[in-house]
Amino acid sequence: MPYMVWGQNVGYKTTAVSQSVSQGNGEPHTHCAMSTEVKPDMSLRPLGLEPPPERELLCIFGTGDLGRSLGQRLLQTGYRVVYGSRRPHSCGPLPPGAQVMSHTEAAQLAAVVIVCVHREHYDFMEEVAPQLKGKVLVDVSNNSKKGLYPESNAEFLQSLIPAASVVKAFNTVSAWSLQNGPSDAHRQVFLCGDKAEAKQKVRELATRLGLSVLDRGSLSAAREVEDFPLQLFPEWRLPLCIATGLTGFFFFYLLIRDIIYSYVEQDKDISFRIMVSLANKVFPIVSLIMLSLCYLPGVMAAILQLYRGTKYRRFPDWLDHWMLCRKQLGLLALGFAFLHVLYTLLIPIRYYVRYKITEYTVLQIRENKTEVFDTTVAWYTDSYFSVGILGFALYVLLGITSLPSVSNALSWREFSFVQSKLGHLTLLLCTLHTYLYGWNRFLDPSTYKWWTPPGYMLCLVVPSVVLVLKLLMVLPCVDRCLGRIRQGWERTGPEGEGTKPLMA
After folding, report:
1. How many CB atoms lie within 10 A of CB 483?
2. Which value, to the nearest 10 degrees, does the dihedral of the CA atoms of residues 170, 176, 179, 182 take?
3. 449, exposed or middle or buried, with CB in 10 Å at 0-12, 13-18, 19+?
4. pLDDT for the residue numbered 27
């Protein structure tokens, strides 16, 4: 293949190659000379191919953890990186292949400058303002708390460098996630800015880093974007409050009924049962109530749609918020169910249980008697354990399908079947498990200590209501009407006379 030489002509060098080879007839081989053009710094490429484009150079202000991690990812993605530092000769270790120089020198080399500096250190920005004119500044800073400054950091940076285009981005990505590769760093990046061209450049940059981008609009939305990293479990607050409230209420309720009642009425000190026995009553109660709270808002929403005769009216804010946190409610409920299982497995090795078994066995030997095997009790206990195991197995399945890696592999119909159909079946089995636990004890007057019902009776109220309402929802007449409403049918009058088709 012919090759084309890239470079400048700097002369020729002639190399003579002489070799004598005896042929079969004894005649020597012809001497030959080869002339070669030698050029320094030249490259040979096939004809018709363009030289590879030069990699884009990006500038990063700041050599902290985020700046180093971001620079390393940019180098791995194929960019060239130059750092701007106030101490270029003593800024610490940087990613291999990156350059470091002063802020002024670094700003002159790149069209995109990523500012990995806290707002408190923006004082040097005015000095390099002439070098940043017409360039894209990516502000990645965050604050320690909300409302710390009257304006957002990005808007403040724009006021310092009005000739540049400031874009807020990458403030929700941590240095740790960047260091752990594309799979762990695949997070959503929020960006906002006033210039569409500048935002497009940052969008392309984030996409090449393997991050998904969500445009939040103009730079006035920067305060909202900067508040995202300051939020502490925003979707978990209501579920955690519910879990904490239920746990505290039932703990003190059972403490009064079981521990204090025995001490006052029977003069028995069984306070040691607080650690295991009392806890193993609280955990399943809270778990069952929280599981039923996952499905109660869906039933309430269906009843509201039936009452209104349309699906085009918003639900109340409290119901919307409740429905959005159902996943967190379910995961917390699963956590309490796990604790219940672990505490139940612990019961046979407890000192108190071993002592009671030994005491009962010795008593049977002394009295020389044996209790007759009761088939009814055997059916009751085996059914109780079997239903509990099946309910917990479906409980775990619901939790697994809630994971993003699993739910993304399911179609909407498959996900809905697991979370709705199998979810209600889980609620039914767990409720039945609790009913079997109570068996016929609700008929025994001694069960109502100080005229209060036991905790498991109280926890059956909400799941029983949910199951009864769900049973009414699946009746053919109700299900057919609800299905028409969710397909766009609307009731025109307040009393339901006539229908109005869905208007496009």
Report:
1. 10
2. -60
3. middle
4. 41
Kindly give, in sequence order, each residue whose CB lies less than 8 Å from that of residue 501, ignoring residues fewer than 6 positions away.
Answer: 488, 489
Asked if residues 462 and 290 have their Cβ atoms less than 8 Å apart, the reply is: no
If DSSP codes are grouped into helix, strand and coil, which group holds residue 499? Answer: strand
Distance, CA of 163 to CA of 31 (rounded, Å): 71
Q: Which residue has the tokens 């409720």?
A: 431
pLDDT tens digits for range 113-157: 999 999 999 989 989 999 999 999 999 999 988 888 999 999 999
Q: How far is CA 93 from CA 62, 68, 107, 330, in A?
A: 12, 9, 21, 46
Report CA Rg, the chain. 37
| pTM attached to this predicted model | 0.72
- Whole-number Å distance between alpha carbons of 99 and 80: 9
Residue that the structure tokens 């929802």 belong to: 473
DSSP of 327-364: HHHHHHHHHHHHHHHHHHHHGGG-HHHHHHHHHHHHHH
User: Rounded to 10 degrees, what is the CA torsion of 181, 184, 186, 189?
Assistant: -100
Mean pLDDT score, 160-165: 94
- Taking the CB of residue 348, how many other CB atoms lie within 10 A of it? 9
What's the rounded Cα separation, in Å, for the pair 165 and 201?
Answer: 11
The pair of three-digit structure tokens given for residue 408, joined into one six-digit string: 């993304």
Per residue in 353-409, pLDDT (tens digit) is 999 899 988 988 888 888 888 899 899 999 999 999 999 999 999 999 988 888 888
Q: Tell me the Ramachandran region of residue 467: left when phi exceeds 0, alpha when psi lies from -120 to 50, beta otherwise.
A: alpha
* Tokens 């505490």 sit on residue: 343
Contact 101, 132 (CB under 8 A): no
182 band by pLDDT with thresholds 50, 70 and 90: low
